[in-house]
Design brief:
The protein is built from one helix and five strands; from the N terminus they run αβββββ. The protein is mainly beta and 66 residues long. The protein has one domain. Strands 1, 2, 3, 4 and 5 form a five-stranded antiparallel β-sheet that branches. A hairpin with a 6-residue loop joins β2 and β3.
């Protein structure tokens, strides 16, 4: 089970993860269904990426607009 602070990702890896579309930093969040996700901090094109089984799915085709 994950929490708001994704303990399943080492801190050094977490610090380098970026949105594959915009290059913006990603922050921990929860989607409308309560599942964990990573959200882009780009104000021009905010996107959210699902986290499935503790693994962030950083594919543009899997992103949803926020």
């Amino acid at each position: 089970m994950t929490t708001d602070h994704t303990p399943w990702i080492d801190p050094w890896v977490r610090s380098v993860l970026r949105c594959p579309v915009t290059g913006a930093e990603l922050v921990d969040a929860h989607g409308p269904d309560g599942e964990p996700e990573l959200r882009s901090t780009d104000p021009e094109r905010p996107l959210a990426y699902p986290v499935r089984d503790g693994i962030p799915v950083l594919l543009e085709s899997e992103a949803r607009a926020v």
